[in-house]
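Please review the protein record below. Tell me whether the encoded fold seems credible here:
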Amino acid sequence: AILTEPEETVLGLIEAGVDVTTRYPNGETPLLVAAGRGRDRIVRELLGRVGDGEVNVCASGGRRAIMMAALGGWSGVVELLVSDPRCEVPVRDDIGRDVFWYARVGG
């Protein structure tokens, strides 16, 4: 739904209690997908509902929500994630790339 539905629809689904910790086959979670698409209102809502371990969950290749937001150039989402004390910033993916690498590539 995060990829195809209007923001209000997704927020309504979250409010209705859908499982916000669902993992897709590639390891992505709703938080990682929303961060990678720059959907800041959805990211904010998800941060209020996920457990501590979900903020830093890794998708395939070791990618995390903050990396995908940086890759997309979504500075507002990066700020939301960094402001959450549960978010680990000095992290690397499976081949050693850090958040700053993703930001440089994504612009």
In short: The chain has a mean pLDDT of 94. Residues 55 and 87 are 6 Å apart (CA to CA).
